[in-house]
Amino acid sequence: MKDTAEPKALVWFKNDLRLHDNEVLCHAIASGLPVIYLFCVDERLFETLPLGFRKADANRVIFLKQTVLDLQKRLENIGGHLHIELGLPEEIVDAYVNKYSISKIYAEKEYAWEELQMMAEVKKRIAEKAALITFWGKTLYHIDDIPFTISKIPLTSKAYRIPTGKETEVREPYNEPIQANAASAIKSTAFPSFEKLGFSEEEIAAVEPFIAGGETAALNRLHNYTFETKLLTGYRWSRNKSLGMDYSSKFSPYLALGSLSVRTIYQKVKQYEQLVKKNQSTWWLIFELVWRDYFTFKGMRMGNAIFKTEGFRNKRIDFENNTALFKRWCDGKTGLPFVDAHMRQLNKSGYMSNRGRVNCSSFLVHDYRIDWTWGAAYFESRLIDYDVSANWMNWHMQAYEIWYTNPIHQSLKYKAKDYIQQWIPELAKINDAHIYIPWHEKSAHLGIQDYPKPVEIFSKWGRSIQKILTEIGG
Ligand SMILES: Cc1cc2nc3c(=O)[nH]c(=O)nc-3n(C[C@H](O)[C@H](O)[C@H](O)COP(=O)(O)OP(=O)(O)OC[C@H]3O[C@@H](n4cnc5c(N)ncnc54)[C@H](O)[C@@H]3O)c2cc1C
């Protein structure tokens, strides 16, 4: 039934699931209209792709639920609510406009292909009924402040980074609102059950997101990584590791759903530089956030070519696309311990280090010769920090812009023994460098039976294998 009462504002949360530094929220509250708060669980997220897995799998749905429920609680604390609806956002938003006499819809601007189609559809449906007011919120540097238009974003990161850093200031974060100005008599609704989203109890029980979702956990992690533990001071030297929480910030899952604002991170790092330490690490963390910006803007320039096998450079590798090998890679059963440990961590926890992502993607594309878009789609399905541009642009880069990463050399270089022991129980008892080549004839005395052998030992690994044998004394 249509609510014929006074006009209202709708805050449509998407990947901006936070109260702090949220321009959308601040403008909606400042409009003076009573506000309705909405999050749509897009049913398309859980569809099964032709490759045989869901677009977003169990870890992602658990992490999303934690994030949305935390937002709901925080909105309730300031006198608000959060309606959670399952379906197609374009239909839900249109139905809300009709049902609640919405005159203004406030939402974050989108940048990626599918999401832009969805926003266009919303606009078409609401037509003259309501105004759709959107704000840019994703990047460190505001899209309107960088010294390039999207169609002229440079093709190299340096050509983007240097002028942008010189000519652009990071905007001040918005204050967190203290009251929601919510429409009266509107109550929060529940997150749909996992069953309704198509997940069995076993699927949900089999995984556990690497970190807890939500703005509260995000702000805690920001404080923890900076002022509480001062881990940030060592980031430059630890960032290429893979084991545990401490070697890198773990901000990415929070940035992906917007439960942490990138400008708030920047502000915190600047305070840290003043009060604790300014060094290569603090510079490097900001540098990584600028990479994230660059991939967002460059991805916008390239449009939907970032999802295509030939990519935006129209290149082509002669992919063999062996589906049995793809399954081995997905399952963490390639026989390459450094690759398998990372894939198993991804499957269980929805997270993988940057070092792991580089090695697993390179291995899939250049050793197994499988279409990089299959790997990117698999990461999309599993990563709790899935971000359209960070994922697809990094995969594109591994396929076409970086030649090769040798997973045997890297396992030795990054001393991955403890990490492999943690994620591959079959190898947990191997205490020396045999763990990097458990299938080698010189490792035969270890009697490893239940861990697979690689389908091929490539000659390009020869020198690294020799180095390992020298280290073992073989
Ligand atoms: C094949 C591949 C796929 C990837 N997919 C994603 C993805 O879907 N989502 C995602 O957030 N990152 C992705 N990355 C980038 C990177 O691996 C992760 O951002 C990082 O591992 C997250 O952990 P962290 O927050 O502890 O990173 P930190 O090392 O602490 O870095 C801080 C922040 O900088 C940003 N950042 C760091 N490295 C990169 C990078 N190479 N590209 C873009 N941003 C970066 C992230 O926002 C990260 O949270 C991918 C990298 C590769 C090689």
From TrEMBL:
Its cofactor is (6R)-5,10-methylene-5,6,7,8-tetrahydrofolate; FAD. PROSITE patterns: PHR_CRY_ALPHA_BETA (PS51645). One of its GO terms (molecular function) is DNA binding. Keywords: Chromophore, FAD, Flavoprotein. It holds the Pfam family DNA_photolyase. Gene3D superfamilies: 1.25.40.80, DNA Cyclobutane Dipyrimidine Photolyase, subunit A, domain 3 (1.10.579.10), HUPs (3.40.50.620). Residues 7-140 form the Photolyase/cryptochrome alpha/beta domain. InterPro entries: Cry_DASH, Crypto/Photolyase_FAD-like_sf, Crypto/Photolyase_N_sf, Cryptochr/Photolyase_FAD-bd, Cryptochrome/DNA_photolyase_1, DNA_photolyase_N, Rossmann-like_a/b/a_fold. FAD binds at Y235, S248, S249, K250, F251, S252, D385, Y386, D387. Binds 1 5,10-methenyltetrahydrofolate (MTHF) per subunit. Binds 1 FAD per subunit. It comes from the Bacteria. The keyword Flavoprotein applies. May have a photoreceptor function. Belongs to the DNA photolyase class-1 family. This is Cryptochrome DASH. It comes from Aequorivita lipolytica.
